[in-house]
Write a structure and sequence with these properties.
The structure is a homotetramer. Chain A is of the alpha/beta class and about 475 residues long. In chain A, about 35% of the residues lie in helices and about 20% in strands.
Chain lengths: ~475, ~475, ~475, ~475
């Protein structure tokens, strides 16, 4: 049975107009006024509301095994919280251990994700290198709908990639039509600073940002970008948190390079004063990498988002509760890194982005949904209110308000980094796969209803990259014998 | 009777897909495969071709009275040449003389334009200031579908605006929801340099670029941008020809300001060596303002177009034949300024933009059509292949080739700045208002079929500008009596 | 009788070394250890102290008639305060009224300055234009030791220069080997915003910064720089107070242009929160143009000073007491613009510059003295501790401390913008023309002992400007008759 | 016996003035007019000439064992050529093999250098890491007058430093008051591209620049700078050859970081078209790393030199004759990397820098001599014409001309990259250690007269670095027990 979103104003990434939206069989069938719909069609009231593509969070870590524990939010609770927050799809990460087969890790994560209630997909991390990794990358792209690979430049002695791995893996991505993504922090510097701080007796959460100053990210961002640029590859930087990294992206884009940057809701709103909190647990609850930054970085990130030099927003949703965080009581390097946000992203971005005139509503749709769909080759199936698209829709009441709190959120974590923030503009209804799953404060989902989304290789960016590669092919100079 | 574009690949600004396009009553009715169309629908073959929104040239001067003569291309011949080149709409300029009523000038131009064969609209120039100008701006916006006003910062002792006029007019634009546009060259400097060069006995066309060096444009671009920024107004810079001006735009955009930049096909392809031509007529044929520039500027313009810091492409199509140019035989300041291009813009941009991997096909559509439609509030009526849009379509054969020449072009001018250029990728068919007007090398139009297009006030950019204005409203500090 | 500064460490702009300094007849005779000095030479103890070139303040307005009143500090009191603060020379401004003869104004100021107790010189303002102004500029340069001319881009309806005056005057400077300087604020925008604010009923000092937002300065700075660049002239921007203007200078310098920027001690230390003060008099006491700025500008100014993109520091010392400021009680545009600082500049810059590691001691000397001497062609007579230089010396105790206050300062004004600031590092002794004039908290001077300093034309920057001018001279293309 | 340079104009980095220079015992005794000199003093005629500090070349490789051969120029011939070219001091490099003791290598190079005829000093390379390297660095700084250490980021599988070595060595430099220097090219990328090109059958010298594109340098420059910045260390980049690397330096300096950049005369004058030469030997003769670059980089380097973002000029003088180059006949990676220039540096820089108005004569002195002396803590002993300085002087005839050629140069190599260049401005006389060693086209030196110059630790830059380090020392947050 179909469903008609009625009376709302449709906001796409490039246009806003008054229109109803008719969905059936999980797809959007038509968009317009005076639509001809079958009798018995369920009506979803949207007067006074904006009707937008459901959010896509390109960066989550549900039930991640990390730093000796496992993230408290699993794929069921996590995708539930996402739907409540208007996010209808996540892209999570498969993270093989060094020497572990990529395929094996991939299958493990696929198994974990089966309980999801919203659509999902996976970036797969390359944490080591040999021929089998290269072969598995091919299999994942060709047979499993993976079109992006993640590289950690931090976490020395664990999953860090040195430059040779980056060079090999980025080159392989080029062969496969995939997007390399990077966590950009210089792991050698982080390691050095961590050891030094511990030696100096600075062991609390306040040492966390000191061990990862902005330049550490700026360096790695630059490195990844130039390696990609040299090879002619695209590159996507996850969780850009500093002016330094954002400037690196801007510089490369201004020079014609194909670089993308993602920014977390948290980095746009919160600064590094949290690590000075006298309460250890509060300070530790904010430990994530990259850390929250001095305020001037926040402003720079907003500006880059406005100017299009950053394109996507995410959360790096990775939940650890107080007792998990306590593992690092005497040593900040042992505090599990991660914060939540999948439920709050859209709301805080609307409040601080749209209500402030930083972003238009169209920009909001672009940075919360459409751009991710485009970059990772799911557009216009995802990220669009248009005929033929998946019926993943958020209905937004710009006048509704609430106060964010861990007490009321659905996320499976005992802390909320946006605690106490009063926001105006809320996702009052969420439609996923054509079903009204969140409405009137009620979530109505069946475990496992979420689908794995295949992402085809060769996203649009390859059109120009391949032309450039052909034009720039090296040529030998013909010389006569001497 | 409807018309079905069949077998092609539709390229919009944000997506490419295989689809047919059904048009009727001048509108696009449906886009997709296996479309249900009425019997008797005319079929337009598009296999192997791209089906794109018709080009919009936001900067033409048909039959402009200027520098003692009148541009040789009129609205009939000019819009004909446009259609042949795949451009289905132009925005021309109403240019009142100082002290002339804006309304009077507007009516004059409307009369001239009635013979057009493609759709058209007008920017109206503000060349002087008093209350009547302010009132006429209101009338034009509210009753005549004008949403943009042009300001010349050059042409001292003629139509140049000093800063007070810019400040008044930009402020008025803000009240009306209109877009101020500027020709950015510092007229005082140009005047000074012209006098100096003439005094030095340098009177040929080679003096033209010397009298308008890049900084002269960089200065004015910066000035217009900062004046707009101070007032909270948007601003659109026509014919950005220098790295200097492009850098000014990039700087402002990176700081969150709403600034747009247009670049001419000529400035992207041709450099200032043309003024050194030993043949006076050839050198003079290239005299336009701003002039062609040293090669490094060209590269900078391409990069800004790629990175989105420039958004639109145009031609400043303004034709003067050899005998008109000869008026400046002994004094370069008397050579009528202008070059042609409305017929060639799409072709040369495809050849040098898309074929080289500088721009994707989607970028091409954006910079030749969609972005102009968005900025000047005609989107998605114009600039889009989607249901409900005007059926203005270009069918592009990426393998077709030709050599550009004044001998074969339709433009009413005896010179072509792209003479001899071999291009690959041509507009083989053009549909305007749902009619196949250009096909198989034949133009099939009736004089006067072109329509004046009303452009509503308050284009999308005002959504955020108005929020910012409200948030930044000045407040008095309350002080107790002392 | 000579004087020997003994036991100190000499700090010049390019080197620091342990040395004594022997002075006689107003000049430095020798610098080194174990100097051979005549018996009876007065010894000035400098153990534990730094011995540096006396400060030069390139921007003061003693007893300036302005906005209906006269600055309270005259040349006698002002130069006295300067000596107490370690500043041994000022460059003040001759400001003719529009239509007033430059020579007449110059003579007037020369008369006022005769009571000075430190050396002084004059920039002369060009506030209007005709042939007599051009002629007087020649006379001043050739016969009166003036090598710099000031241009106000603000103060509409008073002393503001429009672009044609800038173009003419900068060109004339080039002919004469003089340095054009500018007060960079767009006067049209300031006027517009002032009127608007008054209309909105915002009449207090808080309106002052609102009427001169940072872009207003950025615009004018860019304009002046590009006009100079186009003409091949050097340009010196006084009181750069914004990131915007500083970026404009940096951009030009990175492109090979000869541009200089001055920053005021006040702009480096104080932000715009002062205008929100609930006490009208306190807020009004900070009214100067350009105004104090949001904190991010301060940081940008420091960085530009560190990187050499700004070269000099000044005060714009222009004193108005509370009752003078009260003239603008009901209209902020009538508050006399100006603040003091000639006594505090060196101290606050040492405290916030050297003690913080922002500047080296050599940098400190460069930005407080040497660079000004170089730019305005007095080096190494001024700005250097070397044989042959004028014996203008400050002896600095890096450990001495005090709290700045209007209660204890010598400046003839009832307010100190640095009130309450605790500083470490003080000028404990000052030598002017070889005489110990300030020591042990006592000032020992005779009215009128200060000398007018002739500054020769063609400062060093002209070496390269003239070469470039010759190389870039325009050339006609030879064409055969047609 | 003393020596009097008479009649010339002394040009120092900060001032130009007419003066004679009296030298004795290898030192400059006095500078001025009407100097009182002992009878019998030798007079060196300098009328019409400039008298400048002798050049210092901070980057040479005399008799370097490299790539299976040994550089053809040894310390005797090399320093002889230097003197002929007006360069009175070189800083060469001690390059230990991996696992070789730094002290052992240092002693070897000291031995080789004993035959030098001009003063010299050594940077010592850190090519591997363990405690002994750290200890040897201490010994070299404390006991052997070394204050700079070099790091190669290229040359994988040979002397390349990975990030951990950079972090350790830069940290050690900070402890010792030494300057880390880097050869900035990403060795992993170079290696990858070399293998790929060879596989593609592109084996000639044209492959050399393709294997080291500009981004490869930009990446490494950024990395070294950010690593230094994170640690609070200074850093000096040798042979900056790209806009990319220069931009990285400019960015860091604009943000207050202490970064220095050196540029080679060759990179300022020659572009990458040389590698397309049809003659293999000619193309191979230009093989050096980093390679010559596309012309736009050259212009960027000049601008950075003008704006002070690059501070020093060098040659990377490393000579291999045709038969040595031929080792890479079938494999460009085996062509010994290196070109000459120590004899030509001053001349070509004067011709293309001073004669063109790019640099003032003072700038010329700064970038050829003084800045190197300052950065490496030899100023004002070296790099200055002032009493107490070493009497290393070049007497420059700005009107003298010659044509550069391998046929006439003294350098021990059969090729000159500046072959055929006509230059105006020549070093007509050179004084080293107070002796007239080059005059009237004759070199008058005794083997071994050159001295090893100790360079003290803690160059001036450490003044501010140490203050910043103290201010930024990390602090623990005090928290109550929980």
């Amino acid at each position: 049975m179909g469903l008609l979103v009625k009376g709302g104003t449709v906001v796409n990434h490039d246009h806003t107009n008054r229109a109803d939206v008719y969905c059936d069989n999980g797809k959007i069938i038509s968009v317009g006024t005076d639509l001809d719909v079958p009798p018995g069609t369920e009506e979803v009231e949207a007067h006074g509301c904006y009707v937008m593509p459901g959010g896509i969070d390109p960066h989550t870590h549900m039930q991640l095994p990390f730093m000796g524990t496992v993230a408290s939010e699993d794929f069921y609770t996590g995708t539930s919280a996402a739907l409540v927050g208007g996010t209808t799809m996540i892209i999570d990460f498969v993270i093989p251990s060094p020497q572990q087969s990529l395929m094996e890790a991939y299958e493990t994560w696929r198994g974990w994700a089966e309980k999801s209630v919203a659509d999902y997909s996976f970036h797969v991390a390359v944490t080591w290198w040999d021929e089998s990794v290269s072969a598995d990358m091919g299999t994942l792209v060709k047979d499993h709908g993976v079109n992006s690979f993640k590289h950690f430049m931090a976490y020395k002695n664990a999953i860090m990639c040195a430059d040779d791995v980056l060079v090999n893996s980025f080159s392989r991505c080029m062969e496969l039509g995939a997007i390399p993504t990077v966590h950009a922090e210089n792991g050698e510097l982080v390691f050095h600073l961590q050891q030094k701080l511990l030696k100096q007796g600075i062991t609390g959460p306040e040492a966390h940002p000191l061990s990862r100053p902005p330049m550490v990210e700026g360096e790695a961002a630059n490195r990844a970008i130039r390696i990609a640029g040299t090879l002619g590859a695209p590159v996507y930087l996850v969780h850009v948190s500093t002016k330094d990294a954002s400037d690196a992206i801007t510089y490369a884009r201004a020079n014609g390079q194909q670089v993308y940057g993602e920014v977390l809701a948290g980095h746009l709103l919160i600064d590094d004063s949290v690590y000075q909190n006298k309460d250890w647990a509060t300070a530790a609850a904010h430990v994530m990498s990259p850390p929250f930054r001095p305020p001037e970085h926040r402003e720079a990130l907003w500006k880059s988002l406005q100017s299009g030099n950053l394109q996507t927003t995410a959360t790096d949703h990775c939940c650890f509760c107080a007792e998990q965080k306590a593992a690092g009581k005497d040593d900040f390097t042992k505090i599990p890194n991660g914060t939540a946000g999948v439920e709050d992203r859209l709301t805080v971005l609307w409040d601080q982005g749209v209500n402030t005139g930083r972003l238009s509503m169209n920009d909001f749709v672009a940075v919360t949904s459409t751009n991710t769909a485009k970059i990772f080759n799911m557009y216009p199936r995802k990220g669009s209110i248009s005929p033929g698209a998946d019926a993943d829709i958020v209905i937004w009441d710009p006048k509704a308000t609430k106060t964010i709190s861990a007490k009321t959120h659905l996320q499976n974590i005992d802390f909320n980094i946006f605690e106490g923030m009063n926001v105006t503009g809320l996702p009052v209804k969420t439609i996923s796969q054509g079903e009204l799953v969140w409405s009137d404060g009620k979530l109505n989902v069946t475990k496992g209803r979420g689908r794995y989304i295949n992402r085809p290789s060769y996203p649009p960016v390859y059109e120009i990259l391949q032309k450039r590669q052909a034009l720039n092919a090296p040529k030998a100079v013909e010389r006569t014998a001497q």
